Structures are given as C-alpha cells and as structure tokens.
Amino acid sequence: MPEQAPLAADVDIPFLARKFRLSGGYIRNITLAAAFLAAADGACIRMRDLVRATRREHQKIGKLVTEADFETYGPLLRDL
User: Fold this and answer.
1) What is the pLDDT of residues 18-71, one digit of tens each?
2) String of b and e for 49-79 (b: at least 16 CB within 10 Å)?
3) I need a labelling partner for 63 at 20 to 30 A (CA). Which of 20, 26, 40, 69 fits?
4) Please, which contacts does 8-14 make with residues 24 or more away whose CB atoms are closer than 8 Å?
C-alpha cells in the first residue's frame, strides 16, 4: 500500500496478510481495486473496500472464499 494512499482507521493489513497468502501481483490488483471502490464512494480506503477487492481477486483466480474466511470482517460482504 503506498504511503500516500488515504487509509481509514479500520484497515487491518496484518489480518489480510496472515489470512490470505497471495503473490505481489494479486496484492497489487487488490490494492488498486480497493482504491477504485473507495474513490467511487468519495472516501478513503476502508476495510470494506479491501475485503470486497480480496474476494473479487480470489473469484478471478478461481478460488472460493466465503464470508467465514474473513472472520469478523465477513459481514462487510453482505451489502454488495
């Protein structure tokens, strides 16, 4: 995540890094997608944006992730 990227206080990068083992290219895609989601809402990057982008990236590579995989952040996927 670039230093200049505006992050909300709820962003939990250590959780995402521990929970989802992905290579740099996938992480870059997630970061970029989260930034676009945040920009569309006119907000800084929130955990909601990162969770949604992570799920989308897994779908693109054919890996199933469920709400339970995101543990306490799973409910952030409900209002898609």
Assistant:
1) 999 999 999 999 999 999 999 998 889 999 999 999 999 999 999 999 999 999
2) bbbbbbbbbbeeeeeebeeebbeebeebbee
3) 40
4) 8/43, 8/44, 8/45, 8/46, 8/47, 10/46, 10/47, 11/45, 11/46, 11/47, 11/50, 12/47, 12/73
Tokens of 24: 């740099």
Q: What does residue 79 show for φ and ψ, rounded to 5 degrees?
A: -100, 40
Residue with tokens 């989802």: 20
Evaluate whether 30 touches 54 at the Cβ level (below 8 Å). yes
